[in-house]
Amino acid sequence: MTDFDPIELKRIRWRSRRGLLELDLVLERFLANGFEQLTTAELFAYQKCLDLDDNDFLDYVNGKAEVDDPELAHIIGILRAA
Amino acid sequence: MTIPVRRFDAVIVGGGGAGLRAALQLSESGLKTAVLSKVFPTRSHTVAAQGGISASLGNVQEDRWEWHMFDTVKGSDWLGDQDAIEFMCRKAPEAVIELEHFGMPFDRLENGKIYQRPFGGHTQNEGEAPVQRACAAADRTGHAMLHTLYQRNVRANTQFFIEWMALDLIRDEDGDVVGVTALEMETGEVYNFHAKGVLFATGGAGRIYAASTNAFINTGDGLGMSVRAGIPLEDMEFWQFHPTGVAGAGVLITEGVRGEGGILLNANGERFMERYAPNLKDLAPRDFVARSMEQEVLEGRGCGPNKDHVLLKLDHLGPDIIKQRLPGIREIAIKFAGVDPIKEPIPVIPTCHYMMGGIPTNYRGEVVIPKGDNPEARVNGFYAAGECACASVHGANRLGTNSLLDLVVFGKSAGDSMVEFIKSEMPTWKPLPANAGQISLDRIARLDNQTGGEEVADVRAAMQRTVQARAAVFRNSENLALGVKEIQEVAERVKRTQIKDKSKVFNTARVEALELENLIEVAVATLISAEARKESRGAHAHADYQERDDEVWMKHTLYYGEDRRLTYKPVHTKPLSVEYIAPKVRTF
Ligand SMILES: Cc1cc2nc3c(=O)[nH]c(=O)nc-3n(C[C@H](O)[C@H](O)[C@H](O)COP(=O)(O)OP(=O)(O)OC[C@H]3O[C@@H](n4cnc5c(N)ncnc54)[C@H](O)[C@@H]3O)c2cc1C
Fold first, then answer.
1. Per the residue annotation, which of B7, B43, B117, B286 is the catalytic one?
2. What is the SS3 assignment for B207-239?
3. What SUPFAM superfamilies does UniProt report for this protein, alphabetically (chain A) (predicted)?
């Protein structure tokens, strides 16, 4: 994660606050544990997740919906395990 | 230090359902309107609403707004203001059809009309039979509402300030509201928003409880800002609870689990509901189950290392029933409770869901406070709508699906009142007071300079534990009195919180510290208001005063933060056009 803009990292942390409690809980756990280890590519993918609608995002994380976008599939896998 | 100023006709704080509906009214009337939101508007907590929005459309069965009104008055346990309730129920069909015209994708009947679902508490002819009154967009009603209203606002040129946090209300020497201060998270700068009218639509404050279904963002900012500016809060003792949230997480386990045969156990492995409700047992009404659960905990029969929850046992149902009839429950339990219900029970606790009280308004969305002999004098330039406001339509208990309705009906009504006020009474801006914004700068400076203070997370946890233990569903005099003392001690600790990160840009730690200063105002208001109310009404169930006492207590509580004092004001018993609905014993 070394070459990622530190300000962007702080923005990402704030945007991990969501409208759904379930996502807050999963992302809080992930930010405390796992987030720091992300590669630059994974961080870009996580940023993309944060642009998803909350309901879609939660359905992916819960495994209720399949993730078609290959770029997201990997990071969602990490979140599912968080 | 001079604070930069932004000037608008109207400033709306909050981009959830209520804020967006109000903003639309203002922008479409040609006024220059800003919406401030801590998060992207479609990620406001309204997104969590699944159940639907009520309106007596009568698309499935005969229905009338008068019946909806009766259900709402009864649900409120006669604490709701009947003029506001009539206003909301009468406007409901029009409000829902308007959303449909805006493009909200409601579920439909074969004949093309909006489909309506059954929901607890919705009845025909004053309780005679259930009626299908809830309109929904699949299980994404709140989400669909936010998207629809956001798009309309973009078209109407509403100006959005996203990731801006309002910090304090600006009142001038006459007490009129002339703006609000706000923190731009991206730069850490504070601005004064100068306005002819300000509307708060900041949503709920469920995070004062340790167990809450609310997202982290629900920190009662509008209430905190109001209290700091000398505006009282109304009926803060009334909070709605759901009996079975996952302990330590808040995620709901649906009632269906008990319907399918799930049972509640205490630390001794006893099925305690047999004792409280020999007939209905685990299927007794929601509030009754919740109180029984909490009584077990209070009497020392709670489970876990802190003895603070009970267990919901399902394993006897067998894996097939759990997987087939209760889809998603196993996943929730594994993910949020860390247990597989096929093998182990789920730790559960009564969980806070909705705040009935809030900033006192009338049905026009105008904030009203006592002044001289008038219990409800308008605060010029100040409006509130949605969960942060108390109109009061929900009274002592909210009827399911009436909240989304409240957002659009009172969002629109408040928007109309603001347009009228700005166009007819405010040809130009009243000047900002010389010290405008200083209080916000002082709050931030205090945080930056604090030494030897406590961590925000620790103090927040102490607040949440106190409110949960003293003012959840089981209330008695002794417990509430202890709570009043304890929460004021926590409030002292909030004054000395400390943050390590002093940087300006996207400083989440600072935001959380500022949010805690709002939460604590709500928490203190809740305990002081609850301790004083010596009766049982709606969600306020008092073990030492088990009856509703209309003679003495059919009145709204008003809590003032500056000296933590209470006053009361009468409930509106005069509807707009129909007869008063007189109190009855609440039976179901
Ligand atoms: C799980 C769940 C399910 C529900 N289901 C239903 C249902 O089916 N039907 C129903 O009628 N009700 C339901 N409710 C209740 C209902 O969803 C809420 O009461 C309602 O959505 C609140 O809307 P609001 O517009 O008042 O606030 P919110 O949607 O919470 O929006 C608040 C806004 O204020 C902003 N904000 C807050 N503080 C600040 C600040 N300091 N500065 C700038 N912006 C700020 C936020 O960013 C946000 O945009 C449910 C609630 C929960 C928790």
1. B286
2. HHCCCECCCCCCCCHHHHHHHHCCCCEECCCCE
3. YgfY-like
